[in-house]
Amino acid sequence: LYGSALGPSSLVAATVGSDGLYDTQLAETTVSFNGTPAPIIYTSATQVAAIVPYEITSTTPTSGPQTGQITVTATYQGESSTTIEKFIPLIMPSAPGLFTLDSTGQGQAATINQDGITLNTATTPAKVGDVISLYATGEGQTTPAGVDGKLAAPPYPKPNSSVSVIIGGTPAQVLYAGGAPGEVAGLMQINVQIPGGIQTGNAVPVVLQVVYACDVGGYGGTCSASSQAGVTISLAPGTSSTPGNMTGSWQFTAQSSIFGLSFSVTGQIAQIGNNVSGQLAISGTPCATSAAFN
Fold first, then answer.
1. Is pTM beyond 0.70 here?
2. Which of 4, 49, 59, 233 would bridge 34 by S-S if both were Cys, CB 3.0 to 4.6 A apart?
3. Among 145, 151, 138, 134, which residue's Cα sits nearest to residue 185?
4. Contacts of residue 259, Cβ cutoff 8 Å, sequence gap at least 6
């Protein structure tokens, strides 16, 4: 929220309370949506960061002249200001947005590279085949159900909508989409493997898409929503040197004088991402067979 006299002159960041939750009051600042207090991340005189409560879907009118309207109230030292915003939960239960490094919602995505440490930037790009972590908000309700201000812990909450990611115009494999471990409810982490055959450079577009159940003209159906345009990642030429790839061929030979057994096992294994497939052949005495696996 942007405005004036919203909080103290210097920014104050929240810390997790003894109950394990982010509080709904910080430095005498509170924010509510339709009267429901919201967890606050930080506050200052001109800007406050709050998380829209999950209860908003049950307190927003869904019919009549006030359909989709919510009342947002910010209070500092007893002085309140109110604004009316539009929100239509039955049409948009999920509205994903990707976080970016400069907090503008545009340009370089706030992304962690495969090593789990370095930020994805022009000087530290990812490679084709790498697994990167994106961060988003607006995932909507989750399973287990989201709790306002709670830190994500096992079992991590997963969005009730299905999640997909497009990188450089090509669908990418989503390995995980859910609560960011140790972070507040409402922050979603998406681990995704960069697909092959796509463009490289310092501004490869990335889009997060969700599909969810919705009411279409009084009938049950599905709707979709996408993250904002203009978000990118940095991708270098070449392919990932991900350790542990099992692609190759091998042979094992064994013999037993006690049981009179003699056999040989040969195989071919191919690994693409987390999928492993191959062919085994067993020959010798007293049996011979072959089998495929994946």
1. yes
2. 59
3. 151
4. none
Strand order in the sheet with 275-285: 248-256, 261-272, 275-285, 289-293
Structure tokens at 130: 């790498």
Element (H, E) at 59: helix 56-59
**Residues 1-34 as b or e (16 or more Cβ within 10 Å = b):** beeeebbeeeebebeeeeeebbebebbebbbbbb
32: its two tokens: 């509510």
Residue partners of 157: CB distance under 8 A and separation at least 6: 142, 143, 144, 145, 146, 178, 179, 185
